[in-house]
Amino acid sequence: MNTMTLWHITGWEFAALAFAALLVGFSKTAVSGANTVSLAIFAAVLPARASTGVLLPVLIVGDVLAVVTYRRHAHWPTLWRLFPAVAAGVVVGTLFLMWADDGIVRTSIGAILLLMAGVTVWRRRTAEADEEPDSVSSRAGRAKARSYGVLGGFTTMVANAGGPVMSMYLLSAGFRKLGFLGTSAFFFLIVNVSKVPFSAGLGLIDGRSLLLDAALAVFVVPGALFGKWAVNRINQRLFEQLVIAATIVGGLQLLLR
């Protein structure tokens, strides 16, 4: 029995999942937040809850490729500020998944993403100067890191949708393109790997899902290579606009589905 038969999907549906996996690779090395489109494709082809378990290992493959590509550009003080709050958010997200249905999950996350995009656009229009990454050492920076961290942990646990939330945080903290990509690469590799036991415990990852992941992982690689090529041809302003646009599109997709 092959993977398509096991999941009862057609050739066209597998092609859609393969394209979504390719887009994961591109988002990890170029425009973070673009994989919200992948989230929507996976949820459309597969059962909503099962799709989160299938998508997670695909994301981890993309995270590994992103770390290999941008490992020298990570800002570790920011990461250490975020991790405790993210851990709390993952726990809250796990509890939320135990009782919330798909409609509540989609509406909640979609609203959060649109709110974060709106706040970021407003902050960048009204700020006199961009904050530097080391501003996380201030009291306001620590408070912002905690709030975004909890939201990021929550959204990444319930729907693998933490990318746009953390994108909004890193943009609002004044990260430039390579620092943004390097910091987010390590962040999501660590967070996504830590989510595996929770997802397995909820029955979202099993042998059947891993078999489909093995077939899809190969498509992440060309997407990542294309993203690495494209990011050097995108200026900072366009990069930020694309990240914000991807976040808004992802939020609207979740609200309107």
UniProtKB/TrEMBL annotation:
Its main location: membrane. InterPro entries: TM_pro_TauE-like (IPR002781), TSUP (IPR052017). The chain crosses the membrane at residues 49-70, 82-99, 105-122, 148-172, 178-198, 210-231, 237-256. It is found in: Cell membrane. It is a multi-pass membrane protein. It holds the Pfam family TauE. Keywords: Cell membrane, Membrane, Transmembrane, Transmembrane helix, Transport. Belongs to the 4-toluene sulfonate uptake permease (TSUP) (TC 2.A.102) family. This is Probable membrane transporter protein. It comes from Streptomyces gilvifuscus.
